[in-house]
């Protein structure tokens, strides 16, 4: 190992540095960098061949669509961008020189690892340099074997089953991408690549054997592990750190052409143009997605996301049709509903005086003032809703089971069946901090780790504590919003009942204090949700970085769990409050329950809190969809517009492909994390609270139809090409979806039991004469309103809650929503028998429905296999061919070689078996 001081390194750079004063200033730096001997020949050869430039420089050849080096032969697999800092101000020279050294060391490391580099100046900014990276054939073969990339060994010879829709091809063909533009790809049996058995792989053209996405993935693997600095025994490496420290401004693979213009280069497949025309363009909104081309261009991780999103959207169409039918049924029956007719009837609802819902300043009110609200409630609270809730519980099971089957098909077609069985390489951030040693329990070999067992426990504990703190912060915000609701309801009630808001008088028939409070509180809650989301997002990323997960999968799973727990509490806590807490602990007017000893607890409308839950869901779902589209579409488009305006060049200049891509927005480091999170939160709204809002699947369907095309348009036109990554499935989101599906059965059953008025109505419908207002077997809903409201004697008001009467009227009794004995009864204001029968009916309903639905889900899960039979056959056939072509062929060659070596020696059966075992090991 040879140690070179800073002065020695600068002496190497003296060919291009003529400022003696600058060199003298840099000589004052006393830090030293250790350069391994193996890198020195590379530096010397570079110095002799091209002065001190690490990469060969070349002028742009005025071919804007070129994806090759200037020689037109070597394909560009990756682009690195930096700014030439030699002419920067003197006081920052130390930082710039350090960046330059790191960059040159890094590029020398890449060349030592077999990659070829070529640098070209920008046509827009002379200080900006683009380093083009090319992987030669030998390097590609080496890293294809390292990454276990599966490549073709033989065309698929198994006959595929005919599609059941083939008889309708004259109609269905219009919903598929244009086959003249996007032809169907040939199916192959594949095997993990082995460099020593190259002749057994199906290679038509070596230039196209490795797809551009494979090449880019292998190039990034090398970039992530190439060192850029060594200090003693400590090595620093990885393009990620260089990007974070400003050594490079960007690193990305190239798009193959402009999205709206097909490449004139005959060797370019113009796949980006085809994706835009047949997938991302608004005119193609009705077409199915070209998933194979998406996977080929962007990699399996992007492909599996769009496959899942498309499948979810198709399944939503079924739920949306049933939900829309349920909504239409409720809308048609709202005028004929006995319950709403009694509320609106001047002789019934008009003669029922309701007790004030706040203390002192709230007035008495007539039940028929909630006529419009009761009609709206009938739209969502009817027997069709019960059927729809059960249907959705079965639907979510079918969705998950059919998705598993579809995912298994994609796993086989995209060669990711055994992806998780291979050892995933550690993250560069993890490897860079490995300073402790431990014995691997599997291999028994000592390996480096970044922390001890105690240190890991400390990291996990601090992370968990931070997550809990933020969850409690959300709950505190819910309490604050609840206090707001109580205070605002008091203000609205006072003004509405006393007619202080004359301008609202025409709206009094449609706007109630409960509705006004619900709408304003929902809007405020949505704003709080968005603010907490932005804050917690940074906290969650910081915590996960601090925990230092070993692999990228571990990192994504850890971050996914943290973000989902937070988002679950953030988005759903207010809905759970309205559904299961509000109006459940209010007692009766003579002894109301107070929050914090000051604010009287909220009560629901006479029809329950279901309409308020529906309002909350519609505002959050709608607001979230609008906000996400603004973030996903408008912001990248505006940023690119500004970038193009600031970097515009003269019309006669030709801008190369790599510089056009540099002007686009970089894709998020977390990739599709936020896209998945958005859809899973929506999935929760669609399933957890669908009993209160049958239109949720309809809204989700409309949103997803836009979401697919918006996401496609965004990554195709506004972002640099996404780094291709391998993925077998949707990762940690799969168990989260299964957990939501299980929870949805319980929440919908409880909404119908406790939030809806369904069970009390059914009990009344089938009740006998043991209850008040019943003289015989009822079997009708007439009189239900009167039976669901208890009587209160106004003389029993406490001094704190007694209303101030300023109109001179005298009211002796009022009504409130509950099942209690009337005044004068020996057990006045205690729960009556009807209440306990309703409670028993609610509990029985929850138990029966949950058991029936869970049993149905279990039967469906058992009957629907996760992997289709045809896929199992193809997997077995592929394994057989891999064994025959790659392994048994070599075994025969070895056996033949042994026989020719010694004609007198006969290889016995036992020896052959031993030889097979040795080869397998």
Automatic annotation (TrEMBL):
Transmembrane segments: 305-331, 383-403, 467-492, 512-536, 559-580, 679-702, 736-756, 834-855
Membrane topology classification: Multi-pass membrane protein
Gene Ontology biological-process annotations: calcium activated phosphatidylcholine scrambling; calcium activated phosphatidylserine scrambling; sprouting angiogenesis
Biased composition range(s): Acidic residues: 7-21
Pfam families given in the database record: Anoct_dimer, Anoctamin
Domain Anoctamin dimerisation: 68-291
Ranges of residues in domain Anoctamin transmembrane: 294-878
Keyword Glycoprotein attached: yes
Chief place where the protein resides: membrane
Organism: Cynoglossus semilaevis (Tongue sole)
GO molecular function: chloride channel activity; protein dimerization activity
One GO location term (cellular component): plasma membrane
InterPro entries: Anoct_dimer, Anoctamin, Anoctamin_TM
Presence of the UniProt keyword Transmembrane helix in the record: yes
Protein's cellular compartments: Cell membrane; Membrane
Keywords annotated in UniProt: Cell membrane, Glycoprotein, Membrane, Transmembrane, Transmembrane helix
Protein family according to the UniProt entry: Belongs to the anoctamin family.
UniProt region (Disordered), positions on chain: 1-21
Protein known as: Anoctamin
């Amino acid at each position: 190992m040879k140690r070179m001081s800073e002065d020695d390194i600068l002496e190497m750079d003296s060919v291009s540095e003529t400022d003696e004063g600058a060199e003298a200033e840099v000589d004052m730096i006393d830090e030293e960098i250790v350069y391994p001997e193996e890198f020195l020949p590379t530096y010397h050869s570079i110095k002799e061949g091209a002065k001190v430039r690490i990469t060969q420089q070349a002028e742009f050849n005025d071919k804007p669509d070129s994806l090759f080096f200037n020689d037109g032969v070597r394909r560009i697999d990756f682009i690195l961008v930096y700014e030439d800092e030699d002419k920067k101000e003197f006081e920052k020279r130390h930082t710039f020189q350090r960046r330059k050294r790191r960059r040159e060391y890094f590029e020398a490391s890449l060349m030592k690892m077999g990659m070829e580099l070529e640098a070209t100046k920008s046509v827009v900014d002379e200080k900006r340099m683009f380093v083009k990276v090319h992987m030669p054939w030998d390097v590609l073969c080496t890293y294809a074997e390292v990454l276990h990339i599966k490549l073709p060994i033989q065309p698929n010879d198994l006959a595929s089953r005919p599609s059941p829709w083939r008889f309708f091809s004259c109609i269905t063909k219009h919903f598929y991408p244009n086959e003249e533009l996007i032809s169907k790809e040939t199916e192959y049996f594949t095997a993990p690549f082995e460099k020593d058995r190259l002749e057994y792989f199906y290679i038509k053209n070596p230039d196209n054997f490795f797809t551009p996405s494979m090449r880019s993935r292998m190039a990034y693997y090398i970039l992530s592990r190439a060192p850029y600095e060594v200090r003693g025994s400590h090595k620093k490496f990885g393009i990620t750190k260089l990007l974070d420290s400003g050594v490079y401004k960007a690193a990305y693979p190239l798009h193959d052409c402009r999205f709206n213009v097909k490449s004139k280069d005959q060797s370019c497949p113009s796949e980006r143009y085809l994706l835009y025309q047949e997938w991302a363009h608004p005119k193609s909104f009705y077409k199915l997605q070209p998933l194979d081309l998406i996977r080929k261009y962007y990699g399996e991780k992007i492909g599996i996301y769009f496959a899942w999103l498309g499948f979810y959207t198709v399944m939503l169409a079924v739920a949306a049709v049933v939900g829309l039918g349920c909504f239409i049924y409720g809308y048609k029956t709202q005028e004929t509903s006995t319950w709403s007719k009694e509320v609106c009837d001047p002789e019934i609802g008009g003669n029922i005086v309701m007790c004030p819902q706040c203390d002192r300043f709230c007035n008495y009110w007539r039940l028929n003032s909630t006529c419009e609200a009761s009609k709206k409630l009938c739209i969502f609270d009817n027997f069709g809703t019960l059927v729809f809730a059960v249907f959705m519980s079965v639907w979510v099971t079918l969705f998950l089971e059919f998705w598993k089957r579809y995912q298994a098909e994609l796993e086989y077609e995209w060669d990711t069946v055994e992806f998780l069985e291979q050892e995933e390489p550690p993250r560069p951030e993890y490897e860079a901090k490995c300073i402790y040693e431990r014995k691997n329990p599997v291999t028994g070999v000592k390996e480096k780790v970044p922390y001890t067992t105690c240190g890991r426990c400390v990291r996990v504990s601090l992370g968990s504590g931070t997550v809990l703190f933020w969850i409690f912060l959300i709950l505190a915000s819910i309490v604050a919003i609840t206090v707001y609701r109580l205070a605002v309801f008091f203000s609205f009630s006072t003004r509405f009942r006393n007619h202080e808001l004359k301008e609202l008088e025409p709206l009094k028939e449609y706007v109630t204090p409960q509705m006004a409070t619900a709408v304003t509180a929902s809007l405020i809650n949505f704003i709080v949700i968005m603010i907490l989301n932005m804050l917690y997002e940074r906290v969650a990323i910081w915590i996960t970085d601090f925990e230092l997960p070993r692999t990228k999968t571990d990192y994504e799973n850890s971050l996914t769990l943290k973000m989902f727990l937070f988002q679950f509490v953030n988005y759903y806590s207010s809905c759970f409050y309205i559904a299961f807490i509000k109006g459940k602990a209010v007692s009766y007017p003579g002894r109301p329950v107070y929050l914090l000893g000051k604010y009287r607890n909220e009560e629901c409308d006479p029809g329950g809190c279901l309409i308020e839950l529906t309002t909350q869901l519609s505002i959050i779902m709608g607001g979230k969809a609008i906000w996400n589209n603004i973030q996903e579409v408008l912001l990248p488009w505006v940023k690119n517009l500004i970038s193009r305006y600031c970097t515009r060049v003269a019309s006669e200049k030709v801008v190369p492909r790599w510089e056009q891509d540099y002007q686009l927005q970089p894709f998020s480091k977390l990739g599709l994390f936020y896209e998945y999170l958005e859809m899973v939160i929506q999935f929760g709204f669609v399933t957890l609270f669908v009993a209160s809002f049958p239109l949720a699947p309809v809204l989700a369907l409309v949103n997803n139809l836009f979401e697919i095309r918006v996401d496609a348009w965004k990554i195709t036109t506004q972002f640099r090409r996404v780094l291709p990554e391998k993925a077998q499935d949707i990762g940690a989101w799969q168990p989260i979806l299964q957990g939501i599906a299980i929870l949805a059965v319980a929440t919908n059953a409880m909404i119908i039991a406790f939030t809806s008025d369904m069970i009390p109505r059914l009990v009344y419908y089938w009740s006998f004469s043991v209850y008040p207002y019943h003289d015989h077997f009822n079997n009708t809903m007439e009189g239900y309103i009167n039976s669901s409201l208890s009587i209160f004697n106004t003389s029993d008001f406490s001094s704190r809650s007694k209303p101030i009467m300023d109109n001179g009227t005298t009211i002796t009794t009022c009504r409130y929503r509950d099942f209690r004995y009337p005044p004068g009864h020996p057990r006045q204001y205690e729960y009556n028998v009807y209440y306990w029968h309703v409670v028993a009916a609610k509990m029985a309903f929850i138990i029966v429905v949950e058991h029936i639905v869970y049993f149905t889900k279990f039967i469906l899960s058992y009957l629907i296999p996760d992997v289709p039979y045809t896929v199992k056959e193809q997997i077995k056939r592929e394994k057989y061919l891999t064994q025959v072509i790659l392994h048994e062929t070599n075994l025969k060659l070895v056996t033949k070689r042994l026989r020719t070596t010694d004609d007198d020696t006969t290889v016995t059966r036992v020896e052959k078996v031993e030889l097979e075992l040795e080869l397998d090991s």
